[in-house]
Task: structure prediction
Amino acid sequence: MIKGFKLRPAALAATALAAVLALSGCGGSASSSTSESNPYGLIQAGTIRVASLGDSKPYTFTDASGNFTGFDVELFKDVAHRAGVDNVVFTGQDFSGLLAAVSNGQFDVGAAAIGITDKRKQTVDFSDGYLAGYLTVITTKTSGITDVGGLNGKRLGVVQGTLQEAYAVKNFPSANLVRFPDNNTAIAAVNSGTVDAHFLDYEAAKAYQEQFGLVSAADIPSFDAPAGFAVAKGKTALLEALNKGLADAMEDGTWKSLYQKWFPGSPMPTQYLPKADQAASPAATASVTP
Result:
């Protein structure tokens, strides 16, 4: 209240009533309108805020202008458009905290080739899968590591919170794991000799091999945790819209076109192709999830 200004009792009562009505949504009409204008329960109606990675090429990464691009980015934008939302805002996160940020409502969706696992399902819900593939141990030409047996006693980089970390803990018990927040930091450590090798996904490894002259010591199949879009638990309408958009993108060939664009020359997983193509295509998978 402004100093020196007094309300009469009748005016004071009217003011109090207005405040109560505002807080209650005028008997429920305001909350109903909000629901109708924001059917997916987004943080901001008409905008999907996406937690992603800025250095996971070709899945999600930032280009020279700082804009997010990649397979997952283009696919998600297409799916969001099918759900009626064209304003999609991507923000880079450390992978270790990405799912928690989605779960606690900081973001509407997580999109970063995120492998679907039972443990992660305890934190968030997932859309249907849209990628599956290989894991790769990448190293220098002079490291002497030529297969997974060569990792014994070696310092192996992993990005914290990824499937690669979980796989390495289980399957490379004799390696000394060094955890990093992202692939770029880990690759810098490989190049400087701080670690002997780095364990990451197949497609990202190819890009680093070309950029830095590194080599693959092992390509390991990992098909049991396909990638999915992560949403907070209870966001049923959003999850259903994403699944419908994914199914439509696969059936009309959009998924196939994006895969050919971002993974040229890689074997194509048949389960995501249009039904007409599946019978004619051999089963194969190449992309992998963190």
